[in-house]
Amino acid sequence: MPHKERGKFITFEGLDGVGKSTQLEKLAVHLRKQGLKVIKTREPGGTLLGEQLRTVLLSSRTSGLSPLAELALMFADRAQDIDEKILPALARGQWVLCDRFTDSSEAYQGGGRGLGSDLVLQLHGTLCRNLQPDLTILMVSDLGANLARARRRNIEQAKGADNDENRFERENHAFYKRVLDAYLSIAEREPQRVVQIDAREPAGKVHKKIVETVEERLVRGSN
Ligand code: TMP
Fold first, then answer.
1. Ligand 1 — pocket residues by CB below 6 A?
2. Using H for helix, E for strand and C for coil, what is the string for 102-130?
3. Are strands 95-99 and 135-140 parallel, antiparallel or unpaired?
4. What is the per-residue pLDDT for 16?
5. What CATH code is assigned to 9-222?
6. Which residue in 31, 65, 84, 107 has the most C-beta neighbors within 10 A?
């Protein structure tokens, strides 16, 4: 059987409301037009188990979740996503676009909840077998504008629904500042993997930047 070249693994990161999911979708459309096979996933979520964990993790009805339990559930979701979706797709030669990955745990639980990076990276080593994205798009915008957008969106989505995804949006400005700082430290530590994209530009311009980055880092870079 001919040996299939492994696909590429791209993750999208950033604060809530920064426009990651829109940009991930646009990139998927672009790559498919180039003839590539692309699958999308998200964390938490992405698998059947993951969607159940997502409900528990994001619902404002979940109260009293300890930071360590929160971290463990994020990694349970991720371990399932890796085994069920990400690794099999990469082995088939497909490109995987993932909305959040371990950088989110390092930023939110490590930074935001104060658990620190070491624990997160240790868990990543064990539970994710240290799987590293080929490229991480870190979308950065103004803290205040981000949160306002995320809150508006989630209030709209929660209207008439049994459940909501508001647990994180209830956190205060200081929490999100710690999350952002942790993201920026990751970008500084791993410039070969993480590319910061200014998300304040119109969506079309941001998309163009992302396409250029992917071509520079993954298409030309692998020839
Ligand atoms: P999103 O899927 O709408 O971006 O929201 C997911 C929320 O979960 C977001 O507030 C960030 C949070 N999260 C963590 O705190 N740690 C993690 O490891 C992941 C994947 C997400």
1. 16, 42-44, 58, 74, 99-100, 104-105, 108-109, 168
2. HHHHHHHHHHHCCCCHHHHHHHHHHHCCC
3. unpaired
4. 92
5. 3.40.50.300
6. 107
